[in-house]
Structure formats: C-alpha cells, structure tokens
Amino acid sequence: MLHKFIDDHSNNLQEGNSERLSCPSCGGINTFTITKMQGFVLWNCYKASCSVRGGKDSERTKSDIANKLRSNYHVTCTETFLEPDSFTNFREHPKPNYYLKKNNCMEAIDNGDATVKYDYKMNRAVFLIKNSDGVVVDAVGRALDYRMMPKWYRYGKSDALFTCGSHSVAAIVEDVASACAISPIATGIALLGTNLKTSSLASLWKLLKGFDHVYLCLDPDATRKSLDLHKYLSYIVPCSVVRIKDDLKYYNKEEIRKLVLNNKY
Predict the structure, then answer these.
(1) What is the DSSP letter of 100?
(2) Residue 150: is the preceding peptide bond cis (ω within 30°)?
(3) Any bridge partners for residue 216, and if so which?
C-alpha cells in the first residue's frame, strides 16, 4: 500500500522537486514528503512517532534520461587524469614523510589502501583518487608549507570522492588525511570540502548503499552540515553523527575506535 502511494504521487513529480502530503502510515497532516532527485525517489515522515522513510531508484522520463546521458558524457570527458611529471616517490623526501606520519596516514599507505606521491614542484603530499575499478581519476595535494595557499589543491576536474579502506561500515570525514587515519577500522570517505549540492548527494547515495552503517565524523564547526547529511543519508543507510573535538587525523587508531563507536548521537 505504501509503495503504491509513493508510485502514484512520484510518477508526475519533476526531477529535483518535492511534494508534501499527509502520511499514509500515521495520518500526520502534511508531515510526509516525497522527493525525486538524481534518479532516486525518497520519502520521509517528519512526525516524531512515525518511522516511515525510504528510497528507491526512480523510473525516469525521456528528459531525465537525456540529462543523465549528458551528465555521463561530461564525467567521461573529465575523468581522464594524467599524473604530472613532478609527482615522485614521497618516501625519498623528508617533508611528506613527516606530514604523513604526524597525521596517522602511514598504516593506510602500508596496507595499500592509499597511494601517495610527492609533488616536488608544488611541495605537496599528493593523494591519488581512484574510481571503483581502481583507476586513478584525480589527485588532491596537501601543502607542506603553512604559508602556501590553497591548503588543499585539486589537480583534476573530477567530482570523485576520495575513499580509503574496505569495511562494512564507512566514516564520512572532511579531508583525505582523516580518511586515511580512520581506514583501519572503517572505510574513510573524504568530502574534500564538497558542499551539499544535488550532484554530491547523489554520488554519496550510490557510494554508501552497500554499507551496514555510516558514521558522520565532520569537523566540530560543521555540526549543521553533519545534521543535514544525516537527514539525507538516513533514507538509504543507518547512520550516526559522531561528536569530535578535532580532526580524526590527529588521533591514533585506538582513540578513533573509541570516538567512533562510543560517541555518536
């Protein structure tokens, strides 16, 4: 009955739009929303006593399909990445070694979960970004001189997120080093400063559908962003917001384990 209700009201819903209705489960007046976004239909009742929520792939109109094809063409064109000649072995240089050890990245590197280079021209520790097939599609570099701006530099034009590790649970963090630091206990996913725009949310939904649980471990000053992410991601995967006082990259593995497992709300 619920799915028929969803289908009846979502079939004529425009991509990117929402409709507010009375909940077919609890009867709450105007507490139920249906949203069509990036190939998904999402529904949720905001009444505290009602737990009805969910999501599924939507049946797309000809216009939706055409837009998706154009989007795929764009991604194909921008996800070709050639490493600059200035990328070299970071282990031969003291500055990236110091940064990676200080920020608890070495275990991820030694385990093969992260690939790091050193850009000697820009003086940056460079983390390669790979797609699900292990192909390098981009890179992001951390300045090793505090006077350099920007602190994080994106080398390519891909919208791909940096992931590190292979676990049944995931942790969404702000930066690449934090993703590496948490990778021994959870798959780290770095937003890389990504705003909560439609394309970013769609990428996250697709990436997270296979996980048992997702922990939102963003910076202390990003509480609003964490709660917004929780609101959207809880449609498709169980998730928790984790209170942290500092970036995860500053904690060792056991400290991170205690923070993530015991400090969520």
Answers:
(1) H
(2) yes
(3) 172, 241
- pLDDT of the residue at 202: 65
CA angle 129, 133, 139 (to 5 degrees): 10
Edge-first strand order for the sheet with 152-154 is: 87-89, 116-119, 124-130, 136-143, 152-154
154: its two tokens: 């994106």
- For the segment 176-214, what is each residue's pLDDT rounded down to a tens digit? 999 999 999 999 999 887 665 555 566 677 788 788 899
The domains found in the chain, sorted by start residue, are 2-78 (2.20.25), 87-262 (3.40.50)
What pTM was computed for the model?
Answer: 0.71
Three-class SS state of 110:
helix
CA-only gyration radius of the chain, Å: 20
Model confidence at 40, pLDDT cuts 50, 70, 90, reads: confident
Predicted local confidence at residue 244, as pLDDT: 83
Cα 72 vs. chain centroid, distance in angstroms? 19
Give which of 163, 105, 117 is closest to 141, Cα–Cα: 117
* One-letter amino acid of 29: I
